[in-house]
Amino acid sequence: MSEVQNQIVGIVGPKGTGKRSYLKTLLRYCPRFLVFDVMAEHAQQGGNRLESHAQLAQFLKWIREQTNFGGFYLPDGALDEEIEDVSRLVYKRGHLCFAYEEVPLYTQPGYMPPFLASSFAPDGIAKWISSGPHNVQQRCRRRSRP
User: Fold this and answer.
1) What is the DSSP letter of 65?
2) What are the distances in angstroms from CA 122 to CA 57, 86, 128, 145?
3) 115 in Cβ contact with 88 (< 8 Å)
4) Which of 19, 33, 36, 26 lies closest to 2, judged by CA?
5) In the chain, N or C terminus with fewer CB closer than 10 Å?
6) Are strands 139-144 and 32-36 parallel, antiparallel or unpaired?
7) Do the beta carbons of residue 110 and residue 17 sit within 8 Å?
8) Alpha carbons 74 and 66: distance in angstroms, whole number
9) Ranges of each domain in the chain
10) In terms of Cα–Cα distance, which of 62, 15, 12 is closest to 34?
11) 52-94 residue pLDDT tens
12) Do 51 and 74 form a contact (C-beta atoms < 8 A)?
C-alpha cells in the first residue's frame, strides 16, 4: 500500500461505505503523510496535531530531515481559502501523501478551489468531485504527482 506515496488519491462513495476506514488503512502503510482534517477525526489518533499556519510551516520545515512522519492539519478559517494555502505549501514541499478530508465542505457542484482543481485537472478528477453528490459505489482514483 505504500504506492500512495507521491500520488493524488481520491476516495469517494456514499455515506457509510468505509471511506474513512480505508484512508486510515492507507495511512498506516504510508511513511510520510499530512491530512487536511476538517472534522478533527484523524488528529485524535496521535501524531502531530497542527492547528495554525505557523505550526504547519514549522512542521513542513521539520520534516525535511525526517524519513517517516505523520501530521494532521486542523483548519480554523474559511475552508476554501485554507485549502488553497495549505495545498500550495504542501505541493511545494512534495515527497509526502496529502489527504483531503470532507471534500464536500469546501467544494460544491460546479466549483472547486482553483489550486485543488488544477492539481486534479489533468485526469478529470476535479470534474468528478465537483459534480455534486456521488450516487456511485466507492471508488479510488490515483495519479502520479506531475
Assistant:
1) G
2) 28, 20, 12, 11
3) yes
4) 26
5) C
6) unpaired
7) no
8) 21
9) 2-144
10) 62
11) 999 999 999 999 999 999 999 999 888 878 888 888 888 888 8
12) yes
Q: Which residues of 74-109 are buried (b: 16+ CB within 10 A; e: fewer)?
A: bbeeebbebbbebbebbeebeebbbbbbebeebbee
Length of the chain: 146
Is residue 89 within 8 Å of 57, Cβ to Cβ? yes
Phi, psi of 122 (to 5 degrees): -55, -25
Of residues 128 and 50, more confidence is placed in 50
The SS3 call for residue 75 is coil
| CA separation for the pair 46, 78 (Å, rounded) | 25
> What's the one-letter identity of residue 88?
R
